[in-house]
Write a structure and sequence with these properties.
Elements (H helix, E strand, L loop, with lengths): L1 E5 L2 E3 L5 E8 L7 E7 L6 E6 L6 E3 L7 E6 L4 E6 L8 E8 L12 E2 L3 E5 L2
Parallel strand pairs: 2-11
Antiparallel strand pairs: 1-3, 3-8, 4-5, 4-9, 5-6, 7-8, 9-10, 9-11
């Protein structure tokens, strides 16, 4: 059972980036998915979460209206579309899975990906 986050990179302020969370060894649509991020010297924080069916989602206030979480169950993948990126969005982004509704608490999740670096800088 593995999760792999990918798609990170360097983007200018105001730009967009889409990052992905792919699963292997299990069917992702049985799980709620959460995206978290951790910047240097800061605690990990919740970014967005989506239900197993994709019918409901939740966002941190800091990203609401700029980020969109969605899932492609046919590809066993969840992605996070990030628009209007700002330097304060710079962090390592992690995806996580749990067999229930999403949670804003990282310790509620059973599986974690290795993280993908997103850097917003001019």
């Amino acid at each position: 059972v593995q999760l792999q986050a990918s798609g990170g990179g360097l983007v200018q302020p105001g730009g967009s980036l889409r990052i992905f969370c792919a699963a292997s060894g299990f069917t992702l649509d049985d799980y709620a998915i959460g995206w978290f991020r951790q910047a240097p010297g800061k605690e990990r924080e919740f970014v967005a979460g989506i239900s197993g069916s994709g019918g409901s989602a939740d966002y941190a206030d800091s990203v609401k209206g700029r980020f969109t979480i969605a899932r492609d169950n046919a590809k066993n993948t969840v992605f996070l579309q990030m628009n209007s990126l700002q330097p304060e969005d710079t962090a390592v982004y992690y995806c996580a899975a749990r067999r229930a509704i999403w949670s804003r608490r990282g310790y509620d999740y059973d599986y974690w990906g290795q993280g993908t670096q997103v850097t917003v800088s001019s």
